[in-house]
UniProtKB/TrEMBL annotation:
Keywords linked to the UniProt accession: CF(0), Hydrogen ion transport, Ion transport, Membrane, Mitochondrion, Transmembrane, Transmembrane helix, Transport
Keyword flag Amino-acid biosynthesis: no
Similarity remark: Belongs to the ATPase protein 8 family.
GO BP annotation list: proton motive force-driven ATP synthesis
Pfam families registered for this protein in UniProt: ATP-synt_8 (PF00895)
Subunit and partners: F-type ATPases have 2 components, CF(1) - the catalytic core - and CF(0) - the membrane proton channel.
Annotated localization: Mitochondrion membrane
GO molecular function, one term: proton transmembrane transporter activity
Protein name as annotated: ATP synthase complex subunit 8
Organism: Blattella bisignata
Length: 52
């Protein structure tokens, strides 16, 4: 049974690594954030004083 050369393994590794990077970058930069609304929302902060 013939085996692949080490150079072929290296090319496959580089190919799939580059595809992963390209896919990741495309997903990251294709995100378009929605503009936020002009009204501000009140944030309720509940302060808890811990007594040990």
């Amino acid at each position: 049974m013939p085996q692949m050369m080490p150079l072929s393994w290296l090319t496959l590794y580089l190919f799939f690594s580059s595809m992963l990077l390209i896919f990741t970058f495309m997903n990251y930069y294709s995100y378009i954030p929605q503009p936020s609304s002009t009204s501000k929302k009140n944030i309720n902060i509940k302060i808890l004083n811990w007594k040990w």
